[in-house]
Design brief:
This protein has about 290 residues and is an alpha/beta fold. Helices cover about 30% and strands about 25% of the residues. The longest helix is centred in the middle third of the chain and has 15 residues, at about 170-185. The radius of gyration is 22 Å and the shape is globular. The model has no long low-confidence stretch (mean pLDDT about 85).
Length: about 290
Amino acid sequence: MSSHTTQVTEPMVVDAQGLSKNYGKFQALDNASFTIPFGRIYGVIGANGAGKTTLLNAILGLVPFKGEVSVLGKNPAKGRDELMKDVCFIADVATLPRWMKVNQLLDYVEGVHPKFSRQTTMGFLARTKIPLNKRIKALSKGMVTQLHLAIVMGIDAKLLVLDEPTLGLDILFRKAFYRDLLEEYFDQGRTIIVTTHQVEEIEHILTDVMFIRDGRIVLDSPVDVLSERFVELVVDSRHVEAARALGPIQERVLLGKNVFIYDGVDRAALKPLGELRRLALADIFVAKMSGEKA
């Protein structure tokens, strides 16, 4: 008799293989494959038209596509109703019923979503200036977005998908939102996927990052290994050719010095040539995208 037991592993939150999507001649996704495990905060970063929203829509079963996707062990196209009990989604345009009053909206969500905590949402709303007795159409754009976020953060979902969630909000609220997301919403049983253009604002909350360009994934990595993989080298004119020979992904001149960025090059080879500097996520993104363009 065999003495070993079979270990049951939890499915990936998202397992996507060979995702492709065309809109006429425009290729929005180009053979994108990736997996997202539980308990991670994934940043999907790319320029306008890079394919970020199409990627999210494929995961959520909102668009037909070529390839295979499993979300929480389910096919999002066939089992979307069941899946959405465990998934929350905010698009960049808040689509709340404008004729409802705020407290009527809370009544409605409480009635239709079994995992909604009105108490939690009220806690978030208490930090805003949103009047509960006003109609949604009377609220400012920022207030509508705040309301949407407060409702979603009151829902106990396994997967939270945020597509440019703080668009149109001032910097104070954006910072407060990401702080609340990290301190009060996120835990190891939840996974968050977020797209944004404000890379610097979310860098500190991300566990993983995905760069997307022209529908292709050009980087998919845990954030904590990026500082080992990417480095900036500042050299004077004597070492320019030697630095260039080591294959930088980006080169520029800054205040009379030549600056090179490398991906995966041995630092022992770089150190004698000049000063090594750590890169912020936004700098890595720009360097990686310019390298892809070249």
